[in-house]
Specification:
about 400 residues; 17 helices
Amino acid sequence: MKLTSENIGKLNNNCLLINEDNYVSFSIFSKIKLALLTLMFWISIRAWIFWTINDINRYLCIIYILFCLFSFRNSFKYLGSVFVLFTYFILFRSDNFWEFYGLLAFKVIFILFLLNESKDIKIRLFSYIETIYAYILIPSIGLYILHYFITLPSITIDSNNPLLASGYTSYIFFVKGIYYGIFSLDTFRFLSIFDEPGVVGTFCFILLTIRKYRFTNWKHYIILFAGIISFSFFFYLATILILPILFRIKLKTLIQIAIILSLLVFLLTYLPYFDEMIITRLQIVEGGLAGFNRTSEGWDYHYSDYLQSSNSIFGLGSQSYDKDAFPGVASYQTFVYNYGLVGLALVIIIFGFILSRFGTMGNMIVLMSMFLMVFYQRPWIFDFHILILLFTGVIVLEEFRKYDEISKKENI
């Protein structure tokens, strides 16, 4: 549906043409696919109520693909790009295709069908995800604040990853990790319904970037607040880095922003907790930022040797990192270890090409910048929630671009 001056008022309210049911009429197949995609997203991003059933996404993906086959009528776009991904990652680099990485095969096929979904479905899907999360955050943030003042009913649940926490106290819409040792400071960080505050920070950053950090209603403010109280180093740093790319800020404005941020940082250093979680992690340590502590010393030496070997070209295979047992590493380096520099280049080139076909070069640069920032410290790029946010986000950004063009023409 094209944007015109007649619907700019509605667009102003939510910046997406999705408010009115009569705008887009979905078939029963489309409604089922939307429900499947929404459920797959929340299972993939590991909301705590889905920790024990994460494997169900394998079967939901198969059901989604079958519905696509029944309802799809047009020729496939981007078949060549997805075929290259399938050939390299599934046929060439998978160690145990049938037993474990069958799911990865379905994910690559999933990319093909998601790319070929209609614009309206992608916009509606993004809206569902954003709206559901905003409504979850209302009681989540409320309970997070209240539990410091009163004793709330709760249950203790097992950790889905012992490296993150020994367990969790669940208040239904909010979980709190039980930490020891170096993670004891994380007790004060906001986890929402996830297993670590970094997930909150990353998720909020992606949603706000796709929204171009425009705050058109209460949902966007509450998502921003959630990112702030997660004390996610990634959220703070990535936000600072993405804003000049989003708005193409001039040098003079950048200098002004830098001065304001410097003063703010100086004042916040007097808050001990903020200083510990954010400011200290901005220091340069051994040639890198202290906050990028996604690897271990043992892994760093091992990875350095690996890069100097011929194995780094094509990688060691899809399960190599898991076999070699370096617990606690969460970096793009594990992806390079498994799939090699060729695999890294293929993903960047193919994803960049696909994104450029949906909109302008400016939007492609924004999304690839966002994608690479996330990929740097969360290398699970074939997870359903990353794929869904990336390939729905490009449509949302394009709608913003069209809206801006019409606004200028209409002098709004």
